[in-house]
Amino acid sequence: MYKFLSEEWIKAYMDEWNKNDKLKEGLSKFSASIKYFVEGREDQAVELIVKDGQAVSAGRANSKKYDFEMWATPDNWKVLATGQMGPKAAMLTKRLKFKGSMITAMKYMGAFEESLRMMGSIPTDWDGI
């Protein structure tokens, strides 16, 4: 079990990402730096670096500018990761906050949704967040 959005969790997420052929194929022309964090805890953010659909690096985020940033309350992250709410609905209702190119996000919406649903496959300690 990993604490949600810990350094260990994001590395396990990177491993799952790279096992997901549907995701990698859907993002084969996509490269970006992505920052994830729990609302109010940006100082504990983690990052995932994607090059041509492959996750190439994961770990603690730093103060650099990211292509995309996503954050939510602990409860909303859990609702997303467990599939109780889809990513589109979460963004429309502002339960998932998002910063970055909306045009790019819309272009890759299917893969973006897959990446968020995949969070539920990581053994997560939700009580620790």
Secondary-structure element string = EHHEEEEHHEHHE
Count of individual helical segments: 6
Widest sheet: strand ordering? 4-3-2-5-6
DSSP E strands, number? 7
- Any idea what the shape is? globular
* The named CATH superfamily: SCP2 sterol-binding domain
User: What would you call the structural class?
Assistant: alpha/beta
User: Regions with pLDDT < 50 over 5+ consecutive residues?
Assistant: none
CATH class: Alpha Beta
Approximate helicity band: 25-40%
Determine the N-to-C terminus distance: 12 Å
Radius of gyration: 13 Å
Mean pLDDT, to the nearest integer, reads 93
Please report which band the strand proportion falls in: under 5%, 5-15%, 15-25%, 25-35%, 35-45% or over 45%.
15-25%
Biggest sheet features:
5 strands, mixed
> Which architecture would the CATH scheme give at its second level?
2-Layer Sandwich
CATH fold annotation? Nonspecific Lipid-transfer Protein, Chain A
Number of domains: 1
Question: What does the model show?
Answer:
The protein has helices at residues 7-19, 21-26, 74-81, 87-92, 102-107, 109-117; strands at residues 2-3, 32-38, 46-51, 54-60, 68-72, 97-99, 124-125. The protein is α/β, with parallel strands linked by helices. The protein has one domain: 2-Layer Sandwich (Nonspecific Lipid-transfer Protein, Chain A). The longest helix has 13 residues, at 7-19. The two termini are 12 Å apart. The mean pLDDT is 93.
